[in-house]
Amino acid sequence: MALKEREESMRLAVKQQANVEDTGMKVNDEVHLAPKAVQGKVVETKKPGPPKKLFPSSALFRQWGEDLPEAEQKKAQDLFHRFGYNVYLSNRLPLNRSLPDTRDSRCLQKTYPPQLPSLSVILIFMDEALSIIQRAITSIINRTPPQLLKEIILVDDFSSNGELKARLDETIEVYSQLHPGLLKIIRHTERKGLAHARNTGWGAAAADVVAILDAHVEVNAGWAEPILARIQEDRTVIISPVFDNIHFDNFKLTKYPLAVDGFNWELWCRYDPVPESWIALDDVTAPVRSPSIMGILAADRLFLGEIGALDDGMLVYGGENVELSLRVWQCGGKIEVLPCSRVAHLERHHKPYASDLGAALKRNALRVAEVWMDEYRHMVYLAWNLPLQNSGIDYGDISSRRALREKLKCKTFDWYLKNVYPILKPIHDIVGYGRMRNSLDKGICLDQGPVPGNAPIMYTCHEFSPQNVYYRLSGELYVGPLVAEHQDAQRCLTDPGLREKPTLEACSKAAQSQLHIYWDFKQGGAVINRDTRRCLEVTRELLGARVLVLRACTAQVWEIQYTLGAWGRPGTL
Ligand code: UDP
Ligand code: MN
């Protein structure tokens, strides 16, 4: 962008910032208690102590807002509660603030072809703060070569936040004076969820390449060129930039190390180490092959359409990133993380659109499992502790996604696991899973106990993963969330030999150290250690407490919630 234009855009940014008035407070309102000059003399105000902390347990004030007067604390807390990040501060930071350049210095030496594809940037949002969206737009305008930036498309997924109506329209007008036609907005008239919102943006885009981002991002210097150059080279690559973290409280940036995007069997995203083969290249600017994306992506616009864009049947949040990733890999594309393309992303403290995402994540995960995961689909049910039949979860109509899989002649999930994501470990000999109850008292369940710690306990039954139990034909009994990664941290129920209390140990380590981790168990029978022959039992203590012990068997029996395959009768107990 020409320097003059940049200056103008900065002026615009400042002007807009002065318009931001979410709380009835002006941006330049004085919030600090400084000595004031009155009639030429400096009046020493009595230095007050720090204001009382009105919200000592709020995450917002853990590392921020020390000196904020009480009335301001209330405003800030109210905004934090509504948005999940520090809108009070966002409204007071420049829209065109600078960010530390988090690229490796070798990225700066890279050169790119003079002719690159054009770019449509899509920002989707649902009840984000206006200043956050403005800062995203400003960063995109200031940090993307203007001749390549064709448009910025805003997709409002039916926000209820008032400032995203007329005030956002006015903002777009102001930008349009300087950048005619650059900004567009599409408003959903009902809530469609993020996958659908991303598709809406994609459908409206016209450039060669689309970058589909969250609205709470600030793109960093030089973010676009590596993406455009890589897609020009290979139109079948779906790209993830590297994310850095904007802290939800103080808006400082933390540089994240390079990693690839993966997921566990709940299909919840996680970072995995970069592959050895990439390290061997000894080029920190080289694209890194990645099993998945986190959500944000860039792609050749037409190629993304050819492989089916995103699955509109994904509701609210989650799963759509894994669905796209499996489809891309299994149907002839690839996914890469580009180390020189960096986007700062604000990780919210909580989401404005749902207090518990579990239900949406679970449902969407089953959708992925049923369409793409073949004989490995049971792993998703196991991780979510659901029965394979009659799970009671309606994952919607998947016929069109199955038809797409046929049409694209896609490879199997087995191929994907072996060739793309070998560190995700399937397990085929789990025969019992779910809650584990003792005949003495059906209201309490085997539980992994306090974390950190390795002492399993009996605890009032609940639906969360610390009470997941998995029994394998091998004799291993996992307690706690299913990890199932190679080099895993899965914990096995262990008889330590001497003492009365069982422990939980990393299964791989326990096997090597010849700890006693193998148990005999049949549905409705005793749990007996294969080496020590001691039984897992529950004592009846004074005051009704139940304590988990290992001792000579007294004919206590156990039941596990679901059974599978080769073992016992199928179905729920
Ligand atoms: N979003 C949306 N509709 C929804 C839920 C989310 O458009 O029903 C948007 C949201 O505003 C954000 C993007 O989807 O821009 C991704 O959601 P979020 O940032 O909450 O996910 P995270 O980045 O934390 O995984
Ligand atoms: Mn986000």
From TrEMBL:
Family: Belongs to the glycosyltransferase 2 family. GalNAc-T subfamily.
Single biological process term from Gene Ontology: protein O-linked glycosylation
Lineage summary: Eukaryota, Metazoa, Chordata, Craniata, Vertebrata
Residue ranges constituting the Ricin B lectin domain according to the UniProt record: 433-561
Stored Gene3D superfamilies: 2.80.10.50, Spore Coat Polysaccharide Biosynthesis Protein SpsA, Chain A (3.90.550.10)
Gene source species: Heterocephalus glaber
MF-aspect GO terms: carbohydrate binding; metal ion binding; polypeptide N-acetylgalactosaminyltransferase activity
UniProt keyword terms in alphabetical order: Disulfide bond, Glycoprotein, Glycosyltransferase, Golgi apparatus, Lectin, Manganese, Membrane, Metal-binding, Signal-anchor, Transferase, Transmembrane, Transmembrane helix
Stored Pfam families: Glycos_transf_2 (PF00535), Ricin_B_lectin (PF00652)
Topological type in the membrane: Single-pass type II membrane protein
EC number: 2.4.1.-
Subcellular location: Golgi apparatus membrane
PROSITE patterns in the record: RICIN_B_LECTIN (PS50231)
Metabolic or biological pathway: Protein modification; protein glycosylation
GO terms under cellular component: Golgi membrane
Protein's UniProt name: Polypeptide N-acetylgalactosaminyltransferase
Cofactor: Mn(2+)
InterPro entries: GalNAc-T, Glyco_trans_2-like, Nucleotide-diphossugar_trans, Ricin_B-like_lectins, Ricin_B_lectin
